[in-house]
Amino acid sequence: MRKCLIIFLLVIVSSSVYAVEKLQVMALFSNKAMLAIDGRNRLLRVGERSPEGVRLVSADAFGAVVEFAGVRRNLLLGRGVAASYKVPEKVQQRVLLGSDGAYSLDGSINGRTVPMVVDTGANTVAMSATQAQAIGLDYQQGSPVIVQTASGVAKAYKLDLPKVRAGSIELSNITAVVIEGNMPSKVLLGMSFLSRLDIQHQGNLMILTKSH
Fold first, then answer.
1. CA-based R_g, the chain, Å
2. Range of 137's domain?
3. What does the pLDDT look like over 45-76, one tens digit per residue?
């Protein structure tokens, strides 16, 4: 019973740690440092973690190294950190396997809505010239390339898309190819987009996760 109680308390403490807005070194000692964390002074030994979740990695007469949410920073005496130390926010998009055997979802390119299908076998985001013209994409300003498709080789144009959104997840500067003709019928969400996400499968469900 006592073990269960300890575990329960630890869960409560860890769940309350989520952000530090201001961090400053007030005093330095051998293997210790006095930190001002959001206005509260905390004397930490090397290896100790404050109630806010800031861990002292090292300290000497020259400065201190602290870690929060997996990020390490070097701090000098009297120097503050104005940037926010926030636990990375995660955005998830769940995609159900359709009756056609594809993971389809609605997305957008540069703010223009397009139908998409997740394709881990595609190196880049890919779309047809017909689709590109429908959303006003000046794809012929890209670099001419030759791509291999299910129907054989085809002429295409390689370019970078400023904004690509798949459901609730948006990424910037995504490499894409526009293939001459009207195939594929949907935008292929390839690895130039997917490689920046965590992908998990739960049965017929695909979970895409983006960490900010």
1. 24
2. 90-211
3. 998 988 888 888 888 877 888 888 778 888 87
